[in-house]
Amino acid sequence: MRLRPLGLATAAGTVLLCATALAAAHGDAPRRGREGTVPAADLLAKVRTCDRISAGLYRTDAESAPTVPVCGLKGAVFWQADLDVDCDGQRTTHCNEDRDPWYQDDTAFHQSDGKPLRADALPYVVVPGKSALWDHAAAGILGGGVVAVIHGDQVEYAVVGDIGPKEIIGEASYATAEALGIDPDPATGGAESGVTYILFKDSRVSPVESHAAAVALGDRLARQFLAEN
Q1: How many Cα atoms occupy the beta-carbon half-sphere of 101 within 13 Å?
Q2: Cα atoms in the Cβ-side hemisphere of radius 13 Å centred on 70
Q3: Alpha-carbon Rg of the chain, whole angstroms?
Q4: Model-level pTM greater than 0.85?
């Protein structure tokens, strides 16, 4: 994850398309549309109020004021922020030094074959680095854990794939943005607000690069989350 200056991410409209099937091909880029069986509205109804578990607030960009808390619920943590596009990981046509001025060829967590994650094919989310504000690992948020990312009426299941700066929050992979109908350009795309991230505690997708596995586990945990909160 990079320290992106304020104002480079621009808001994009939500694309309304048909819901995707649970079983996507292993390793394929995600399709647009709601994934799983749980509507976005049902998940959003559970995160209307925040029981803050972070010691303070996060910035959404390097130059912005700290405004975003990490909130806790039974079985999950969540935050509501922007979406900066992360292209870090394997070098591809969409993700490289020419397309992304902040590009790095590695991710904090790796595929089952040891390679970095592929940002333009795998939906993943970036979590803030451990700090006095909050420690994601201590809260049960693990590498490869499942995240429900919500934008408009769409739900995209992703994994925890990278670790970013200690005071900045709100970033997800090229594939996550694209699946949600957000401009995935790493330099000029993203969404300035309106994105909710629900991270399920003590979950882990295996193998981490299987989006189909993330959708199947995420859908089950989302239904459990609704039942318990």
Answers
A1: 7
A2: 24
A3: 16
A4: yes
